[in-house]
Amino acid sequence: MTEFFQNLGMTYEWAWFVATIAGILLIAFPLMLAVAYVILIDRKVWAAINLRRGPNVVGPFGLLQSFADGLKVFLQETIIPSAANKGIFIIAPIVTFTVALAAWAVVPFADGVVLADINVGLLYILAISSLSVYGVVMAGWASNSKYPFFSAMRAAAQMISYEVSIGFILVCVVLWAGSFNLTAIVEAQRGHGLGIVNGFYFNLLLFPMWVVFFISSLAETQRVPFDLTEAESELVAGYQTEYSSMAFALFWLGEYANILLMCALNTLLFFGGWLPPVDWAPLYWVPGIIWFLLKTLFFFFMFSWVMATVPRYRYDQLMRLGWKVFLPMSLIFVFLISGYLMATGHFGTPA
Amino acid sequence: MIQAIAFYLFAFLVIASGVLTIMSRNPVHSVLWLILAFFNAAGLMVLLGAEFIAMLLVVVYVGAVAVLFLFVVMMLDVDLAELRAGFIKNFPLGIAIALVLLAELVLGIGALSAGHLELGTATGENAPNLEVSNITNIGALLYSKYVFVFEAAGLILLVAMIGAIVLTHRDLKTTRGHQNITRQVRRNPKEATQMKQPTIGEGVEL
To answer: Å from B93 to nearest chain A CA?
Structure first.
């Protein structure tokens, strides 16, 4: 895109600057639109599973429901509790929202369609997702109210716990792909399974890691069955209890942007990103971005499917699953996978 | 030019948030400023081309260490008056540390203005390979030349972890509500429920 702006008669530096800004907007606006529609998809999927109709009043098939909700939230009064810590109370939703958007900078939507193709892409995503806990913790503390505070404590413990096993799963993928760059990781999956299937999931050693990753990504985004931070039967609405109007909407948008990011990561790391499911020439006629979006939407469907069918975990079960099941399991698989790769000479013969 | 702007932005923010870390009255605010300082230090690392170290700084310090700080500071009910009393008591020690730091700064800057330290450049197989990313470089060095130091660091951390577990571990029988997860998972409706058809006027014997 830099060249396009250079052709308009700008110097290289200005062209780069304008191209980056344009790239950010090109990701952020469609992402917000996507969030509005995945919220609708979410509600429609739960409705279908619960044998209800779901939102069907605003617009044809309820297509405009999310915009009606957005307008309603926008017109509400912003309430800041008098005992709240005002600065942090206002910053918290902004942090959540910004961090949720920032992670998308390194996500490749198709071959070469990525804002920042850095070679520590995966570490960047890990770093950014470890920041997302701050929005929740700050909101819970600044509200100066008991339920949000409990929720913040739960969120902090939960997200740290599951990040550990996510880290080890990423190590497994990186070992096999030989790079931290997301584009290179996707390319490494071309014809990975028997020379036909594009994706790391078609691999006896990596498939269990994908299952663990999927469950951990549910926990990381605080979705059912791990939504203990907003368990309405215990904590009212968790850390969002004291929030209203746009501040609440920012939490909501950030949460769904994070969920979409986790779906995209499932796609990129294990299901071949923008590559078609099978390495067969006619499938490459479909543009890569379509495959990427289809796979991401499929994972989003799985997220809502889980939400509609599974009851909430108890907190001690959540911690047990993270530390006593997933952590040892992912450690063993790091060991197994690196051992397998060494034995089969994946890294070349040692000098 | 954009590098200079970015450098001064990050450097200013690191120093400002560092100052605010020690000036804030509220300990939670202090921790949040500290996090901002870490984050901007990571920005400086990126400018230096050490993106791997920058990401590790964010993942480890911001993502894990500072969260635990925040966790503890939020739970503690810090009494500011008590802290001030401690301030008077620790004042001489603080002054001593400040003097040492000042002396080091003066010495360092003085030495720098007298001329660079001639370290020479690494050649041969020690020379950094600029063609591959710095993750590859760090990995190649850590797992070949410095492998024993690296493993020793790992062992020290392992010992520290075991020590922490030993110190906090309590015998399971004395704690309340120990649960057998396998038994809970195996439980099914047949053994958990009983069908009773009591006659009118009589209760149910359980």
So the answer is: 33
Cα separation, B50 vs A308, in Å, equals 45
DSSP 8-state symbol, A323: I
B27 token code pair: 């300990």
Residue type, A171: V
The alpha carbon of residue B59 is apart from the nearest alpha carbon of chain A, in Å, by: 5
**Sequence-distant (≥ 6) Cβ neighbours of residue A35 within 8 angstroms:** A253, A256, A257, A260
A278 φ/ψ angles, rounded to the nearest 5 degrees: -120, 140
Residue with the two structure tokens 């929740």: A136
- Mutating which of B5, B57, B59 best tests the A interface, going by the most A Cβ atoms within 10 A? B59
Q: Are A164 and A327 in contact (CB under 8 A)?
A: yes
Residue of chain A whose Cα is closest to the Cα of B75: A153
Cis omega (within 30 of 0) on the bond before A282?
Answer: no
ipTM: 0.79
Which one, of A139, A177, A134, lies nearest residue A159 by Cα? A134
Any idea where the domains of chain A sit in the sequence?
A: 1-75, 80-344
| Phi, psi values for residue A145, rounded to 5° | -145, 150
- Output the tens digit of pLDDT for each of chain A's 351 residues: 667 777 776 777 778 888 888 888 888 888 888 888 888 988 889 899 988 888 888 878 888 888 888 888 888 888 888 888 888 888 888 988 998 888 888 888 888 778 887 888 888 888 888 888 888 888 888 888 888 888 888 888 888 888 888 989 998 888 888 888 888 888 888 877 777 778 887 888 888 999 999 999 988 888 878 888 777 777 777 788 888 888 888 888 888 998 999 999 999 888 888 888 877 777 778 888 888 889 899 999 999 999 888 888 888 888 888 888 899 999 999 999 888 888 887 766 554
Structure tokens at A98: 């910004």
Please give the Cα distance from A301 to B122 (Å, whole number).
54
Say if the Cβ atoms of A138 and B58 lie within 8 Å: no
Are residues A156 and B179, on separate chains, in Cβ contact within 8 Å? no
3-state helix, strand and coil shares in percent for chain B, rounded to the nearest 5: 75, 0, 25
Number of H helices, E strands in chain A: 13, 0
For residue B38, which of B15, B14, B11 has the smallest C-alpha distance? B14
- Tokens standing for residue A28: 């952020």
Q: Who contacts A89 (Cβ-Cβ below 8 Å, separation ≥6)?
A: A80, A81, A139, A142, A143, A242
CA proximity to B68, closest of A61, A23, A164, A258: A164
Distance from CA of B52 to the nearest CA of A (A): 7
Distance CA A200, CA A192 (A): 6
